[in-house]
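Quick one: structure tokens for this chain, please?
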Amino acid sequence: MVARPRPGQQAQLRFHNLRHPKELAEDEVNAFLTHLAMNERISSSTQNQALSALLFLYRYVLDKPFGNLGAVIRARKSRRLPVVLMRPEVRALLARLTGDKWLMCSTLMYGAGLRVMECLRLRVQDVDFGAGQILVRDGKGFKDRLTMLPEAVRQPLCTHLDR
């Protein structure tokens, strides 16, 4: 049974007029990766995956490591703008909340900038009223960080903790 080239390999083979990858030099691989970014308009992650696949092919399958690829034109990362509520929308939303939900949303998430899971995992010992800080443990990227404890949060949070 003959092994058939995978779709990514087929693209490189067709791009270089069906020449075997062993015959190709760094400049031709660079030209292929640049072609993907400029003409095929692929995402940056797809271009990185193609580069990794080619490095693996040359290094471990063909036993022909790359020298220097030169200046590969990189695909641009797409920029997505965050969806942000306007101040009147935030006020209307917070006006409909009461109790613990109001405390979590208005003071901790909106005032201190905590994410939902950070707010849900918050412990009493992570709040330092004296220094006006909140220690966020295992936040985004499993990193710890310090954030401010807003002045507007102190009294409602103390009342909640007393209960």
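Residues 4 and 10 are 9 Å apart (CA to CA).
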